[in-house]
Write a structure and sequence with these properties.
Elements: E1 2-7, E2 10-15, E3 64-66, E4 71-76, E5 83-84, E6 89-95, E7 98-103, E8 108-113, E9 120-121, E10 126-130
Antiparallel strand pairs: 1-2, 3-10, 4-6, 4-9, 5-8, 6-7, 8-10
Pfam families: Biotin_lipoyl
InterPro entries: Biotin_BS, Biotin_Carboxyl_Carrier/Decarb, Biotin_lipoyl, Single_hybrid_motif
Domain Lipoyl-binding: 56-131
Length: 131
């Protein structure tokens, strides 16, 4: 089969071999050139949802240590009643097959451990409460 192609204003006669079982499209059955297609309108930004979620009841409580990540409680190191210094190890979380140490954010006595071994925790969830 012979086709005439026009590229940059020059005409070329091209011999094309068609293998058995291939679909043969006739000239004029091809989609419009890209330059004549209409451009899609620019995407509009999604309307933002109002940020009026209520803070947790103990959100202002600085004596609560919270998890910075989601994970599963792998090991509980600190005990209730134990005196800790800032950056002492509280618990170890496992997330994506990696262990992450969660440390005390302040010095003080551990009033209550708020998670259990094997428990799944979410980011921001309370881990321990200090006196």
């Amino acid at each position: 089969m012979q086709l005439t192609l026009t590229i940059d204003g020059k005409k070329y006669l091209v011999d094309v071999e068609v293998e058995e079982g291939e679909e043969v499209r006739q000239p004029g059955s091809f989609p419009e050139p890209v330059s004549t297609l209409k451009a899609a309108p620019p995407p509009q930004p999604a309307p933002s949802a109002p940020q009026q979620s209520a803070p947790p009841a103990d959100a202002g409580n600085e004596k609560i240590c919270r998890s910075p990540i989601a994970g599963v409680v792998f090991k509980i190191v600190a005990q209730e009643g134990q005196q800790l210094q800032a950056d002492d190890l509280l618990v170890v979380l496992e997330a994506m097959k990696m262990e992450t140490n969660i440390t005390a954010h302040m010095s003080g006595k551990v009033k209550k451990i708020l998670v259990a071994l094997g428990e799944a925790v979410k980011p921001g969830q309370a881990i321990a409460e200090f006196e």
